[in-house]
Design goal:
Elements lengths: L1 E5 L5 H10 L5 E5 L11 H17 L4 E4 L2 H4 L7 H5 L1 E3 L1 H8 L4 E6 L1 H6 L1 H9 L3 E6 L1 H8 L9 H16 L4 E5 L7 H7 L4 E4 H19 L8
Parallel strand pairs: 1-2, 1-3, 3-4, 5-6, 5-7, 7-8
Length: 226
């Protein structure tokens, strides 16, 4: 069984990618709404919450867990080694893809921006210029039920205002540094037609698929097909 977790609905974008490709696996999704949002929590609080999330999924029978939350992934290195062995953060796969750009903007939660984790990870792969933009308001927007194709006038204005902050950074690449933002990808893409968008929810799921497939191939098992 595979576990996927986030503080709310954001990580469902990752779960959908996994479900579309994994035909013989059971997937369980955990939304820790009791402690949402994660984006305003301290590092110490996050370490405790993320550790508990992974342990809960392990107790449900999950052999591996996707941390489908960039804020939660930012504290991955601070987790116990046993928890790290059965979990996969989503920041590095997105940072790797984004590093192909020359001028990168990252929109993320308060904690993720303060941690500068995306900036650090991108620096491993390139010398690209990175602008970090806090867009915590988009998390609340998505959690309230608004998303691509279902935005109120007020909701669209909120997304538009964030797009203007992004434009001011003049990026060629935009990282959706929170899985909630994947639910607004089409709207952001329409507002920023010349900017390549890197979806952390999608890239994290693809990284997990690659890891599982490699494991299965070692055992001579075909896990999924295109």
């Amino acid at each position: 069984m595979i576990g996927v977790f986030d503080s709310g609905v954001g990580g469902l974008a990752s779960a959908r990618v996994l479900r579309s490709r994994l035909k013989a696996e059971n997937i369980i999704y955990l939304a820790d709404r009791k402690n949402a949002p994660y984006g305003t929590k301290s590092k110490e609080e996050l370490i405790s919450l993320v550790s508990n999330d992974i342990l809960r999924l392990k107790n449900y029978g999950c052999r591996i867990c996707l941390i489908a939350c960039c804020t939660a992934s930012s504290v991955y290195e601070h987790l116990d080694n046993e928890l790290k062995k059965i979990s996969l953060p989503i920041i590095e796969p997105a940072a790797l893809l984004a590093s192909r750009g020359r001028k990168i903007a990252v929109i993320a939660t308060e904690h993720t921006v303060e941690s500068s984790i995306f900036k650090q990870k991108i620096a491993y792969f390139s010398k690209a210029e990175v602008a970090q933009i806090c867009a915590q308001e988009l998390v609340s927007l998505v959690e309230s039920g608004e998303h691509d194709g279902n935005l109120t006038e007020k909701g669209y204005k909120t997304v538009f205002n964030v797009s203007q902050k992004i434009k001011s950074a003049n990026p060629d690449t935009l990282v959706l540094g929170c899985t909630h933002f994947s639910h607004l990808e089409k709207t952001l893409s329409a507002l920023l037609p010349r900017v390549k968008i890197v979806n952390s929810a999608k890239e994290g799921a693809i990284a997990l698929l690659s890891e599982i497939q490699a494991e299965k191939m070692e055992r001579g098992v075909c896990l999924y097909t295109e």
